[in-house]
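Handoff note, outgoing to incoming analyst
You'll be picking up this chain. Sequence as last confirmed:
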Amino acid sequence: MSSNSVSRRRFLQSAGAAAVLVPTSVKGYTSGEMHALGPEGLNEVDVSKWDLDTPALLVDLDGLEANLATMQQTVQRNGIASRPHAKTHKTPQIARMQLESGSVGICTAKVGEAITMYEHGIDRILMTTTNVTPFKIERAMGLSRWCPGFVQATDTPMNARLLSEAAEVAGIVANVVVDVAAGQRTGIPAGPPALELAQLIDQLPGLRLRGMLCYDGGAQHVKGFDARKTRALERLVPASETFALMQRSGLNTEIFSGGGTGTYNIDHETSGITDVQVGSYVFLDAQYLGIGGETNAEVYTDFQPSLTILTTVLNDRYEGRATTDAGAKACTINRPWPIVKGETGMSYTSGSDEFGTLRYEDPSRTYKVGDKLEVIVSHCDPVVNLYDQIYAIRNDRVEAVWRIAARGISV
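Most recent structure output, in case you need it:
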Protein backbone atom coordinates (compact mmCIF):
# COMPACT_ATOMS: atom_id res chain seq x y z
CA MET A 1 0.00 0.00 0.00
CA SER A 2 1.43 3.41 -0.98
CA SER A 3 2.20 6.24 1.43
CA ASN A 4 -0.88 8.02 0.09
CA SER A 5 -3.13 5.17 1.11
CA VAL A 6 -5.77 5.73 3.73
CA SER A 7 -5.66 3.59 6.87
CA ARG A 8 -8.80 1.68 7.75
CA ARG A 9 -8.36 3.12 11.26
CA ARG A 10 -8.66 6.74 10.31
CA PHE A 11 -9.75 10.14 11.46
CA LEU A 12 -12.58 11.88 9.65
CA GLN A 13 -12.09 15.59 10.11
CA SER A 14 -14.51 18.42 9.56
CA ALA A 15 -13.94 22.16 9.78
CA GLY A 16 -14.11 23.45 13.32
CA ALA A 17 -14.84 20.05 14.85
CA ALA A 18 -12.76 17.55 16.76
CA ALA A 19 -11.54 14.44 14.97
CA VAL A 20 -13.73 11.38 15.33
CA LEU A 21 -12.15 7.92 15.44
CA VAL A 22 -13.94 5.43 13.20
CA PRO A 23 -13.54 1.74 14.12
CA THR A 24 -11.91 -0.54 11.57
CA SER A 25 -15.12 -2.54 11.17
CA VAL A 26 -16.96 0.46 9.71
CA LYS A 27 -16.74 0.72 5.93
CA GLY A 28 -17.36 3.92 4.01
CA TYR A 29 -14.61 5.67 2.11
CA THR A 30 -15.29 9.40 1.79
CA SER A 31 -14.76 11.30 -1.46
CA GLY A 32 -11.58 12.89 -0.12
CA GLU A 33 -10.14 9.54 0.88
CA MET A 34 -10.93 8.05 -2.51
CA HIS A 35 -9.06 10.88 -4.23
CA ALA A 36 -6.08 10.21 -1.95
CA LEU A 37 -5.87 6.59 -3.08
CA GLY A 38 -4.26 7.43 -6.39
CA PRO A 39 -3.25 10.21 -8.80
CA GLU A 40 -5.20 11.32 -11.87
CA GLY A 41 -8.37 9.66 -10.65
CA LEU A 42 -6.86 6.17 -10.77
CA ASN A 43 -7.02 3.97 -7.70
CA GLU A 44 -3.97 2.26 -6.27
CA VAL A 45 -6.07 0.37 -3.75
CA ASP A 46 -8.69 -2.22 -4.67
CA VAL A 47 -11.96 -0.89 -3.20
CA SER A 48 -15.40 -2.46 -3.37
CA LYS A 49 -18.21 -0.16 -4.36
CA TRP A 50 -20.04 -1.37 -1.27
CA ASP A 51 -17.30 0.24 0.86
CA LEU A 52 -18.03 3.73 -0.47
CA ASP A 53 -19.65 6.33 1.72
CA THR A 54 -23.12 7.31 0.54
CA PRO A 55 -24.85 8.80 -1.30
CA ALA A 56 -22.40 8.10 -4.11
CA LEU A 57 -22.77 8.38 -7.89
CA LEU A 58 -21.62 5.30 -9.79
CA VAL A 59 -21.19 4.41 -13.44
CA ASP A 60 -20.83 0.80 -14.50
CA LEU A 61 -17.97 0.74 -17.00
CA ASP A 62 -19.16 -2.36 -18.84
CA GLY A 63 -22.55 -0.74 -19.38
CA LEU A 64 -21.02 2.60 -20.38
CA GLU A 65 -18.69 0.97 -22.89
CA ALA A 66 -21.51 -1.13 -24.32
CA ASN A 67 -23.62 2.00 -24.79
CA LEU A 68 -20.79 3.76 -26.60
CA ALA A 69 -20.34 0.77 -28.90
CA THR A 70 -24.06 0.46 -29.65
CA MET A 71 -24.29 4.12 -30.59
CA GLN A 72 -21.26 4.09 -32.86
CA GLN A 73 -22.24 0.88 -34.60
CA THR A 74 -25.72 2.23 -35.28
CA VAL A 75 -24.79 5.66 -36.60
CA GLN A 76 -22.01 4.24 -38.75
CA ARG A 77 -24.41 1.70 -40.22
CA ASN A 78 -26.87 4.50 -40.95
CA GLY A 79 -24.29 6.72 -42.63
CA ILE A 80 -24.17 9.55 -40.09
CA ALA A 81 -22.05 10.45 -37.07
CA SER A 82 -22.52 11.14 -33.37
CA ARG A 83 -21.75 14.46 -31.70
CA PRO A 84 -22.63 13.69 -28.05
CA HIS A 85 -23.89 16.31 -25.63
CA ALA A 86 -21.48 16.70 -22.72
CA LYS A 87 -24.14 18.47 -20.65
CA THR A 88 -25.25 14.95 -19.71
CA HIS A 89 -22.05 13.81 -18.02
CA LYS A 90 -19.99 17.04 -17.63
CA THR A 91 -16.96 14.75 -17.32
CA PRO A 92 -13.90 15.11 -19.59
CA GLN A 93 -12.93 11.44 -19.24
CA ILE A 94 -16.28 10.37 -20.69
CA ALA A 95 -16.03 12.96 -23.47
CA ARG A 96 -12.64 11.53 -24.32
CA MET A 97 -14.10 8.02 -24.46
CA GLN A 98 -16.79 9.26 -26.83
CA LEU A 99 -14.25 10.81 -29.18
CA GLU A 100 -12.04 7.73 -29.05
CA SER A 101 -15.02 5.55 -29.94
CA GLY A 102 -15.61 7.56 -33.12
CA SER A 103 -17.69 10.65 -32.32
CA VAL A 104 -16.88 13.66 -34.53
CA GLY A 105 -16.98 16.05 -31.58
CA ILE A 106 -19.00 16.91 -28.51
CA CYS A 107 -21.75 19.43 -27.78
CA THR A 108 -22.08 21.72 -24.78
CA ALA A 109 -25.00 23.81 -23.58
CA LYS A 110 -22.92 26.54 -21.89
CA VAL A 111 -19.78 28.39 -22.83
CA GLY A 112 -18.40 27.54 -19.38
CA GLU A 113 -18.82 23.85 -20.14
CA ALA A 114 -17.01 24.34 -23.45
CA ILE A 115 -14.11 26.10 -21.73
CA THR A 116 -13.87 23.36 -19.12
CA MET A 117 -13.80 20.66 -21.77
CA TYR A 118 -11.11 22.49 -23.73
CA GLU A 119 -9.02 22.91 -20.57
CA HIS A 120 -9.12 19.12 -20.28
CA GLY A 121 -7.96 18.47 -23.83
CA ILE A 122 -11.28 18.29 -25.71
CA ASP A 123 -10.98 20.49 -28.80
CA ARG A 124 -13.93 19.63 -31.06
CA ILE A 125 -16.85 21.43 -29.45
CA LEU A 126 -20.23 22.60 -30.74
CA MET A 127 -22.06 24.92 -28.35
CA THR A 128 -25.77 24.53 -29.06
CA THR A 129 -27.01 27.55 -27.07
CA THR A 130 -26.74 31.11 -28.34
CA ASN A 131 -24.44 33.50 -26.45
CA VAL A 132 -26.33 36.77 -26.04
CA THR A 133 -24.74 38.63 -23.11
CA PRO A 134 -21.48 40.62 -23.50
CA PHE A 135 -19.78 38.44 -20.87
CA LYS A 136 -20.62 35.17 -22.63
CA ILE A 137 -19.76 36.56 -26.06
CA GLU A 138 -16.37 37.70 -24.77
CA ARG A 139 -15.71 34.29 -23.22
CA ALA A 140 -16.74 32.55 -26.43
CA MET A 141 -14.34 34.67 -28.47
CA GLY A 142 -11.58 33.97 -25.99
CA LEU A 143 -12.16 30.26 -26.42
CA SER A 144 -12.35 30.64 -30.21
CA ARG A 145 -8.90 32.24 -30.19
CA TRP A 146 -7.34 29.15 -28.62
CA CYS A 147 -9.65 26.41 -29.92
CA PRO A 148 -10.10 26.39 -33.72
CA GLY A 149 -12.57 23.52 -33.33
CA PHE A 150 -15.05 25.56 -31.27
CA VAL A 151 -18.35 26.31 -33.03
CA GLN A 152 -21.22 28.30 -31.51
CA ALA A 153 -24.86 28.74 -32.47
CA THR A 154 -26.73 31.90 -33.36
CA ASP A 155 -30.40 32.46 -34.21
CA THR A 156 -30.89 36.20 -34.89
CA PRO A 157 -29.30 38.73 -37.24
CA MET A 158 -28.62 41.03 -34.27
CA ASN A 159 -26.74 38.33 -32.42
CA ALA A 160 -24.77 37.40 -35.53
CA ARG A 161 -23.65 41.00 -35.91
CA LEU A 162 -22.63 41.19 -32.25
CA LEU A 163 -20.61 37.99 -32.60
CA SER A 164 -18.90 39.31 -35.71
CA GLU A 165 -18.00 42.61 -34.03
CA ALA A 166 -16.60 40.79 -30.99
CA ALA A 167 -14.60 38.45 -33.22
CA GLU A 168 -13.09 41.39 -35.09
CA VAL A 169 -12.10 43.03 -31.81
CA ALA A 170 -10.48 39.76 -30.75
CA GLY A 171 -8.69 39.51 -34.08
CA ILE A 172 -10.26 36.19 -35.06
CA VAL A 173 -12.88 34.66 -37.33
CA ALA A 174 -15.40 32.70 -35.23
CA ASN A 175 -17.15 29.52 -36.34
CA VAL A 176 -20.96 29.59 -36.15
CA VAL A 177 -23.97 27.49 -37.08
CA VAL A 178 -27.54 28.66 -37.55
CA ASP A 179 -29.91 27.30 -34.90
CA VAL A 180 -33.07 26.42 -36.82
CA ALA A 181 -36.19 26.06 -34.67
CA ALA A 182 -37.98 22.73 -34.35
CA GLY A 183 -40.50 24.25 -31.93
CA GLN A 184 -40.69 27.53 -30.06
CA ARG A 185 -37.94 27.20 -27.45
CA THR A 186 -34.92 28.45 -29.39
CA GLY A 187 -33.86 28.96 -32.97
CA ILE A 188 -34.92 30.96 -35.99
CA PRO A 189 -37.91 29.79 -38.05
CA ALA A 190 -37.03 27.41 -40.87
CA GLY A 191 -37.19 28.51 -44.50
CA PRO A 192 -36.41 32.05 -45.72
CA PRO A 193 -35.64 33.53 -42.24
CA ALA A 194 -33.01 30.88 -41.56
CA LEU A 195 -31.60 31.12 -45.06
CA GLU A 196 -31.31 34.90 -44.82
CA LEU A 197 -29.49 34.61 -41.51
CA ALA A 198 -27.07 32.08 -43.01
CA GLN A 199 -26.43 34.42 -45.95
CA LEU A 200 -25.79 37.32 -43.55
CA ILE A 201 -23.30 35.23 -41.56
CA ASP A 202 -21.54 34.29 -44.78
CA GLN A 203 -20.99 38.01 -45.46
CA LEU A 204 -19.96 39.17 -41.98
CA PRO A 205 -16.18 39.64 -41.69
CA GLY A 206 -15.83 38.13 -38.22
CA LEU A 207 -17.78 34.91 -38.78
CA ARG A 208 -17.36 31.65 -40.65
CA LEU A 209 -20.56 29.71 -41.43
CA ARG A 210 -20.25 26.00 -40.70
CA GLY A 211 -23.84 24.88 -41.27
CA MET A 212 -26.87 24.51 -39.04
CA LEU A 213 -28.43 22.60 -36.18
CA CYS A 214 -32.02 21.70 -35.33
CA TYR A 215 -32.94 19.83 -32.16
CA ASP A 216 -36.45 18.61 -31.39
CA GLY A 217 -36.25 17.86 -27.67
CA GLY A 218 -39.95 17.07 -27.49
CA ALA A 219 -39.57 14.07 -29.79
CA GLN A 220 -37.03 12.27 -27.61
CA HIS A 221 -39.43 10.97 -24.96
CA VAL A 222 -42.50 10.25 -27.11
CA LYS A 223 -43.71 6.82 -26.00
CA GLY A 224 -43.80 4.12 -28.63
CA PHE A 225 -41.24 3.78 -31.41
CA ASP A 226 -43.67 4.33 -34.29
CA ALA A 227 -45.19 7.45 -32.73
CA ARG A 228 -41.74 8.81 -31.90
CA LYS A 229 -40.52 8.15 -35.44
CA THR A 230 -43.50 9.91 -36.99
CA ARG A 231 -43.08 12.95 -34.73
CA ALA A 232 -39.32 13.21 -35.24
CA LEU A 233 -39.36 12.94 -39.01
CA GLU A 234 -42.33 15.27 -39.50
CA ARG A 235 -40.90 17.99 -37.26
CA LEU A 236 -37.55 18.00 -39.07
CA VAL A 237 -38.96 18.34 -42.60
CA PRO A 238 -38.77 22.18 -42.54
CA ALA A 239 -35.18 22.01 -41.24
CA SER A 240 -34.23 19.57 -43.97
CA GLU A 241 -35.76 21.85 -46.59
CA THR A 242 -33.82 24.78 -45.11
CA PHE A 243 -30.61 22.78 -45.33
CA ALA A 244 -31.33 22.14 -49.02
CA LEU A 245 -31.93 25.87 -49.55
CA MET A 246 -28.57 26.62 -47.99
CA GLN A 247 -26.88 24.08 -50.22
CA ARG A 248 -28.47 25.49 -53.37
CA SER A 249 -27.35 28.97 -52.32
CA GLY A 250 -23.75 27.81 -52.26
CA LEU A 251 -23.37 28.17 -48.48
CA ASN A 252 -21.19 25.95 -46.33
CA THR A 253 -23.34 23.07 -45.12
CA GLU A 254 -20.77 20.73 -43.58
CA ILE A 255 -22.81 20.50 -40.35
CA PHE A 256 -26.48 19.58 -39.99
CA SER A 257 -26.66 18.45 -36.38
CA GLY A 258 -29.77 17.33 -34.50
CA GLY A 259 -31.60 14.41 -32.98
CA GLY A 260 -30.92 12.67 -29.70
CA THR A 261 -30.96 9.48 -27.65
CA GLY A 262 -34.64 8.76 -28.27
CA THR A 263 -34.34 9.17 -32.05
CA TYR A 264 -30.73 8.10 -32.71
CA ASN A 265 -31.88 5.24 -34.98
CA ILE A 266 -34.48 7.41 -36.73
CA ASP A 267 -32.71 10.69 -37.49
CA HIS A 268 -30.70 9.35 -40.41
CA GLU A 269 -33.94 9.28 -42.42
CA THR A 270 -33.99 13.10 -42.34
CA SER A 271 -32.35 14.22 -45.58
CA GLY A 272 -29.06 16.02 -45.06
CA ILE A 273 -28.50 15.34 -41.37
CA THR A 274 -24.83 14.77 -40.60
CA ASP A 275 -24.81 13.84 -36.91
CA VAL A 276 -26.93 13.27 -33.82
CA GLN A 277 -26.58 15.22 -30.55
CA VAL A 278 -27.08 12.19 -28.33
CA GLY A 279 -26.55 12.64 -24.61
CA SER A 280 -28.36 10.36 -22.19
CA TYR A 281 -27.43 7.17 -24.05
CA VAL A 282 -24.20 6.88 -22.08
CA PHE A 283 -26.13 6.49 -18.80
CA LEU A 284 -29.79 6.04 -19.66
CA ASP A 285 -32.31 6.72 -16.87
CA ALA A 286 -35.85 6.00 -15.69
CA GLN A 287 -37.30 8.61 -18.05
CA TYR A 288 -35.86 6.90 -21.10
CA LEU A 289 -36.52 3.36 -19.90
CA GLY A 290 -40.25 4.03 -20.14
CA ILE A 291 -40.43 5.22 -23.77
CA GLY A 292 -40.17 1.81 -25.44
CA GLY A 293 -38.01 0.91 -28.39
CA GLU A 294 -38.16 -0.63 -31.82
CA THR A 295 -37.92 -4.18 -30.47
CA ASN A 296 -39.57 -3.71 -27.07
CA ALA A 297 -42.72 -1.61 -26.94
CA GLU A 298 -42.67 -1.22 -23.15
CA VAL A 299 -39.01 -0.76 -22.19
CA TYR A 300 -36.24 1.10 -23.99
CA THR A 301 -33.62 -1.64 -24.09
CA ASP A 302 -31.32 -0.14 -26.74
CA PHE A 303 -28.94 1.06 -24.01
CA GLN A 304 -28.05 -0.13 -20.53
CA PRO A 305 -28.83 1.95 -17.41
CA SER A 306 -25.21 2.39 -16.33
CA LEU A 307 -25.66 5.31 -13.90
CA THR A 308 -26.80 4.59 -10.36
CA ILE A 309 -26.81 6.16 -6.92
CA LEU A 310 -25.52 4.07 -4.06
CA THR A 311 -27.49 4.72 -0.87
CA THR A 312 -27.62 3.36 2.68
CA VAL A 313 -30.67 2.34 4.73
CA LEU A 314 -31.02 4.51 7.85
CA ASN A 315 -34.26 3.20 9.31
CA ASP A 316 -36.14 -0.09 8.93
CA ARG A 317 -38.39 0.22 11.97
CA TYR A 318 -41.73 0.65 10.23
CA GLU A 319 -43.57 -2.11 8.45
CA GLY A 320 -43.61 -1.99 4.68
CA ARG A 321 -40.97 0.68 4.29
CA ALA A 322 -37.41 1.78 4.90
CA THR A 323 -35.64 5.14 4.88
CA THR A 324 -32.36 5.83 3.03
CA ASP A 325 -29.85 8.67 2.90
CA ALA A 326 -30.50 9.59 -0.76
CA GLY A 327 -33.29 12.15 -1.02
CA ALA A 328 -33.90 15.08 -3.34
CA LYS A 329 -30.42 16.51 -2.82
CA ALA A 330 -28.93 13.24 -4.09
CA CYS A 331 -31.57 12.17 -6.63
CA THR A 332 -33.56 15.30 -7.62
CA ILE A 333 -37.37 15.24 -7.63
CA ASN A 334 -37.69 14.49 -11.33
CA ARG A 335 -40.25 11.90 -12.34
CA PRO A 336 -40.56 9.03 -12.76
CA TRP A 337 -38.91 8.26 -9.44
CA PRO A 338 -35.64 6.32 -9.28
CA ILE A 339 -35.83 2.56 -9.75
CA VAL A 340 -34.24 0.10 -7.30
CA LYS A 341 -31.67 -1.79 -9.34
CA GLY A 342 -32.03 -5.56 -9.55
CA GLU A 343 -35.13 -5.78 -7.36
CA THR A 344 -38.87 -6.12 -7.86
CA GLY A 345 -41.97 -5.46 -5.79
CA MET A 346 -40.74 -2.21 -4.29
CA SER A 347 -40.76 1.49 -5.16
CA TYR A 348 -38.46 4.39 -4.33
CA THR A 349 -39.23 8.07 -3.82
CA SER A 350 -36.86 10.96 -3.12
CA GLY A 351 -39.26 13.76 -2.29
CA SER A 352 -37.64 14.61 1.04
CA ASP A 353 -34.51 16.77 0.96
CA GLU A 354 -32.24 14.34 2.81
CA PHE A 355 -34.13 11.04 2.82
CA GLY A 356 -35.31 8.51 0.28
CA THR A 357 -38.18 6.14 0.97
CA LEU A 358 -38.42 2.48 0.01
CA ARG A 359 -41.94 1.05 -0.01
CA TYR A 360 -42.54 -2.66 -0.22
CA GLU A 361 -45.44 -4.15 -2.15
CA ASP A 362 -44.36 -7.73 -2.92
CA PRO A 363 -40.63 -7.31 -2.50
CA SER A 364 -37.94 -9.60 -3.83
CA ARG A 365 -36.13 -8.80 -0.57
CA THR A 366 -36.18 -6.32 2.31
CA TYR A 367 -33.38 -4.13 3.67
CA LYS A 368 -31.99 -3.60 7.17
CA VAL A 369 -30.27 -0.60 8.71
CA GLY A 370 -26.79 -0.28 7.22
CA ASP A 371 -27.63 -2.20 4.06
CA LYS A 372 -26.74 -0.52 0.79
CA LEU A 373 -28.63 -0.54 -2.49
CA GLU A 374 -28.44 1.10 -5.90
CA VAL A 375 -31.13 3.09 -7.66
CA ILE A 376 -31.30 3.90 -11.36
CA VAL A 377 -31.56 7.67 -11.61
CA SER A 378 -34.71 9.46 -12.72
CA HIS A 379 -33.08 11.96 -15.14
CA CYS A 380 -29.33 11.68 -15.55
CA ASP A 381 -28.40 15.27 -16.52
CA PRO A 382 -29.54 17.10 -13.36
CA VAL A 383 -28.47 14.20 -11.12
CA VAL A 384 -24.88 14.37 -12.40
CA ASN A 385 -24.86 18.10 -11.67
CA LEU A 386 -25.40 17.34 -7.96
CA TYR A 387 -22.10 15.48 -7.52
CA ASP A 388 -18.42 16.42 -7.49
CA GLN A 389 -17.25 13.05 -8.74
CA ILE A 390 -18.36 9.79 -10.25
CA TYR A 391 -17.02 6.37 -9.32
CA ALA A 392 -16.21 4.22 -12.35
CA ILE A 393 -17.09 0.63 -11.40
CA ARG A 394 -16.18 -2.69 -12.97
CA ASN A 395 -17.17 -6.03 -11.44
CA ASP A 396 -18.31 -4.19 -8.31
CA ARG A 397 -14.84 -2.68 -7.76
CA VAL A 398 -13.83 0.97 -8.08
CA GLU A 399 -11.59 1.25 -11.13
CA ALA A 400 -11.36 5.04 -11.24
CA VAL A 401 -12.68 8.23 -9.66
CA TRP A 402 -13.60 10.89 -12.22
CA ARG A 403 -14.09 14.51 -11.25
CA ILE A 404 -17.22 15.99 -12.78
CA ALA A 405 -15.24 18.99 -13.93
CA ALA A 406 -18.17 20.99 -15.37
CA ARG A 407 -20.44 20.34 -12.40
CA GLY A 408 -22.32 23.50 -11.41
CA ILE A 409 -21.16 25.45 -14.47
CA SER A 410 -24.31 27.13 -15.72
CA VAL A 411 -22.80 30.20 -17.39
